Amino acid sequence: MVKEEIRTEKAPKAIGPYSQGVRIGRFLFLSGQIPVEPLSGELVEGDVGVQTRQVLKNLQSVLEGSGASLRDVVKTTVFLKDLAAFSEMNAVYGEFFTKPYPARATVGVAGLPKGAAVEIDAIAVVGDDI
């Protein structure tokens, strides 16, 4: 199988030696997104809800750059700097995903790039059902 880089100008550029996403066959592996505004490259200011919204918009842009959508996401991992903000993150997360929801893990972390409060990565499957 060919490994194809997923890249879009509508999401923040990678800030290291990694791709925004990689496609292998029907599988899309999306790197973690933090709440960076794509044009300015700056972290959005606001609470976890505001930051989660930007993170999910960034993930959505990477998916769209590969011809996919949030409906194709089968697994996410949420990294939260403060697990006490889980409910706030979860409320916004629920605005972006519909049933059947992706599988998900949520992990509390000591810190995230640029001082972000939240980061989310994703795996999607596109194309015909098996």
Q: In words, what does this structure look like?
A:
- With 130 residues, the protein is an alpha+beta fold.
- It has one domain: RutC-like (60s Ribosomal Protein L30, Chain: A, 2-Layer Sandwich), CATH 3.30.1330.
- Helices cover 22% and strands 28% of the residues.
- The protein has 2 helices and 6 strands; from the N terminus they run βββαβαββ.
- The chain has helices at 48-65, 86-96; strands at 3-6, 21-24, 27-33, 73-80, 103-108, 118-125.
- It has a 6-stranded mixed β-sheet, with helices on one face.
- α1 packs parallel to α2 (86-96).
- It is globular, with a radius of gyration of 14 Å.
Keywords, please?
130 residues; alpha+beta; 60s Ribosomal Protein L30, Chain: A; 2 helices; globular
CATH class: Alpha Beta
Let me know the largest β-sheet: 6 strands, mixed
The SSE string, one letter per element, is EEEHEHEE
Instruction: Please compute the radius of gyration using only Cα atoms.
Output: 14 Å
- CATH-level-4 superfamily name: RutC-like
Number of strands: 6
Helix fraction by DSSP (H/I, runs of at least 4): 10-25%
Please tell me what the overall shape is: globular
Helix/strand/pairing class, anyone?
A: alpha+beta
Quote the distance from N terminus to C terminus: 17 Å
Count, helices: 2
